[in-house]
Each structure stands twice: as structure tokens, then as C-alpha cells.
Amino acid sequence: MANDAVAEQERMRRFRDAALPHLDEVYTLARYLMRNTNDAEDAVQECYLRALRHFDSYRGPAMKPWLLAILRNVCNTEFARRSRREVLTDYAQDELVTEEMPMWQEPQASPEKMMLQQQDSATIRRLVEELPEPFREAIVLREMNDLSYKEIAEVAGVPVGTVMSRLARARAMLRSAWNTTETATARPGSAAASGIAL
Amino acid sequence: MNCAEFEVLLHALIDGELDAGHAREVEAHVASCSACAEKLTSFRAMREAMSGAALKEVAPAHLRNQVEALLTPPTARVVSMRSFFKPTRRSFFGGFAVGSALSAAVAASLVLTVIRGDQEQAVADGIVSAHIRSLQAGHLMDVATSDQHTVKPWFNGRVDVAPPVIDLTAESFTLLGGRLDYIDNEPVAAIVYQRRKHVINLFVAQRLGGKHAGTVAESIQGYNVRHWSLGGLDFWVVSDLVGDELDEFVQKIAGALRPSSTS
Q1: Is B60 within the bounds of a domain?
Q2: Is residue B164 domain-resident?
Q3: Number of structural domains, chain B?
Q4: Which residues span the domain enclosing B186?
Q5: What string of DSSP letters covers chain B?
Q6: Assuming Cys at both sites, which of A116, B51, B53, B240 could form a disulfide with A121, CB separation 3.0 to 4.6 Å?
Q7: Residues B101 and B197 in one domain
Q8: B49 vs chain A: nearest CA distance in angstroms?
């Protein structure tokens, strides 16, 4: 009996050591998927509980993509519960969107128009949050969570080719929104004035 | 390859995901196609802008604490047992040469205590497991309705008790429905409430752990658990709701159950 308790404590300690360092990463993905703080926090807690329950059967991949995949499933479950239509991954719809919308939406831009406007962090966050799924998830896993294409494919449960086309679409949409969004008015002397120099 | 196909590969080039052969192919195309060259420059600039911006989140301290609590073994009991045994030992054995008869007696009482604790613990763990199970998709409710007069009769013939189903909507505890659950292989009525995003499972059965005079409060695997007995029934409440609010829930339920306060 005492041995069981000791073994359980040891299991929890191993899980904590392996999983807790990725809390910020998990929370980052949760924030971008759920798009509000409370839902993100609930999703993170549920993610760690599920991960702990399945830790015995964990054989890889690396801990970070494994946790992110669980987090994504938690969010998907929540969205499915709220509305059958809001599920993150809908392959058929994904392909439809890809076919319907041209890769490059903007009218042929002049060279100076191709330059990227300066945007502050808050605006970039908002633009990413406004991307539709599954493109938002792809770009967050790439840019914020620093996953490789192969890892993104594992997390999203799609082939690497799909990851590539989703990322291309995501960046095309993001760039389009980026340059049509008013640059945040730079308040002199404030921190917000420090945009991104290109 | 046309420009649309190259555009997908541009991103793989930016992300350093292309093998040398494909990278050379894309670079050769970009060298001869100004449109693609512009795109490459533009997307590179965007990627750099994003990596320079503060786009990553830092988990708030309270969330880190909550997650750490979830990942802390249910030591509450172990600690309390230890603190119970240690002073006992000292007060019993302090200054005495311990005879084998005495140690045998103490050992026997130890075993008894441990076994009782384990049975109680098995129920408590079963309660928490049932709660976690219920949170998985589609497991929360067998009968989903906020109408107490639908939930209560649903349990007829399914469990050997008539669990009280109380409408606490006015107290902002929403009745979600009811479920038949099994704890220690016994059918147990589970009545499901919700406050904000937090699900509360109220388990009711005739025998579910020991009878207690008051309300026993504990925390298991990060969940708050309350247990009390009333009118020959055992009540267990589990939720990730904060302790204070769960206590409020227990008070409302217990208050509504007392005959004197029946409205």
C-alpha cells in the first residue's frame, strides 16, 4: 500500500518534471485557440489532467508536441460540445476553402505595396487570432510554439503536405490582413511606439 | 512547377524545411521570377517581424499554481496520518523500552487504521475518477435537463435511493441533469450542476464511505471534494470550483435538504 503511494508520487514527479516546463507553450496555444483567458486556463488544466492520466502510455513524440496535441484535442472537444459546426479540423471544408480561394488574394501589388507595414505586437496577436481554423492553429504551432512541419503534422493529425499548404494559406491571409490594417497610431514616448523596424 | 506551387515551397524555404535539392530549385525560380522574389522578401519580413514581436504567452501565476496542485499527489491524507502517528509514537514510546507485546498491539491498531483509511480513500478516489470520467465528451449526463422534476423521476428503478434534486438556478448553480454512475461497483446517482465553466458532480447513495457528523473537506488530484451524511444518505460533491464556492454549494444543498427549511 505504501509502495503504491510511493510509486504514484514518483510517477507524478516524473510527469511534473517532464510536462511543467512546457506550461507557457501549452498556455500560448490555448490562448490562440480558445481566444479568451478563462477558456484557455480551463483547457490547460484539462490538458495536464489528461496528459497525467495517459502518461503511462506515453512513448513519444517529444513532450512538447505530445502536450500540444492533447491541448488541441481538449479545445476541439470543447468546441464540438458548443457547436458541431465549430470543430477545428474539418478536412473536407479545408480542401474546399483551399480550392475556392486563390492563394494570393491581393490585387497585383506594386513593389512598395509589397513592403510590410509596421505592426505592434498587440495588433499582430489580434490578426493571428482572427485567422480561421485550421490556418490559425498551423501558424501558431509554427511561429509561437516553434514546431517543425513534422511535429505540426503530428499535432494536427494531417500529412506534412497539408501542413505546408495550410501554412502558405495562413501566411497569405495574415499578410493580407496585416497590410490592410491601420498601423497602430504611435503614441509619442509610449512603449506602443516601438513598432517593428523592417 | 508553376508559381502557385512554388509559393507553398517558399514558406518551406523560409522555415528551413526544404532539403538542399528543393531549396536550390526554389532559389533558381525566385531568381528568374520577380513576383515570387517579392513574395519571398515580404514573407521573410513578416516572419522576422513575428519572431521579433511578443506573441508568446506566459501562463499567469495562479494558473501555474493550479496546474502544480493538479500534479501534486494527494498527500493530504498521508500528511495527516503521519502527523497523527508521529506524536502518538512519541507519547507512547517516549522514555520506554518497547516490549514486543506492546509493539504488536500498536502494529495491529495501525493496520486497522490503515485499512479503514484505505476503504474511505478507495471511495474518495472512486468519486474523483467518476467526476473526471464524467467530464469526458458525452459522459456527463444520461438525462440532460435543467428541470428538477424530470431528473428526479429518471432515477426511479435505476438506483435504490430517491436522490433529492434541488433547483439552485437562483443561486447561479445551474442544474444540468442526472447520470447513473458506478463507484465501488455500486450504482450511484450523480446529479450534475454547473457554475460558470465548472462542473459539479453531486453523488448520492446509501452507503458511500463512512458516516460523518459534519462535512469532510479535502482536495484530491486538484479537485475539491466535500462529503457529508444526512438522513441515511451519503453525499459527495466534487468539482474544480474553488473551495469557498463549493462550500456555498454544499450549504445550499444541505440547507434545502433539512426538513425545517423546506419551502
Answers
A1: no
A2: yes
A3: 2
A4: 70-261
A5: --HHHHHHHHHHHHTT-S-HHHHHHHHHHHHH-HHHHHHHHHHHHHHHHHHHS-------HHHHHHHHHHTS--HHHHHHHHHHHHHHHHHHHTTSPPPHHHHHHHHHHHHHHHHHHHHHHHHHHHHHHHHHHHHSTT-S-SEE-S-HHHHHHHTBTTBSS-------GGGT-EEEEEEEEEETTEEEEEEEEEETTEEEEEEEES-SS---SS-EEEEETTEEEEEEEETTEEEEEEESS-HHHHHHHHHHHHHHHSGGG--
A6: B53
A7: yes
A8: 6
Is B222–A104 a contact, with Cβ atoms under 8 angstroms apart? no
- pLDDT tens digits along A126-157: 999 999 989 999 999 999 999 999 999 999 99
| CATH at B240 | 3.30.200.100
CA distance B18 to chain A (A): 10
Which whole number is the average pLDDT over B231-240? 88
B166 or B93, which is more confident: B166
Domains of chain A as residue ranges with CATH:
2-86 (1.10.1740.10), 91-193 (1.10.10.10)
Is B4 an interface residue toward A (CB < 8 Å)?
yes
Is residue B183's pLDDT more than 50? yes
Percent of chain A whose pLDDT exceeds 70: 75
Residues of A in contact with B75 (CB under 8 A): 9
The size of the A-B interface in CB pairs under 8 A is 135
Q: Higher pLDDT residue, A197 or B22?
A: B22
Q: Average pLDDT, stretch B32-54?
A: 91
From A41, A49, A114, residue closest to B63, measured CB to CB: A41
Q: Do B171 and B215 lie in a common domain?
A: yes
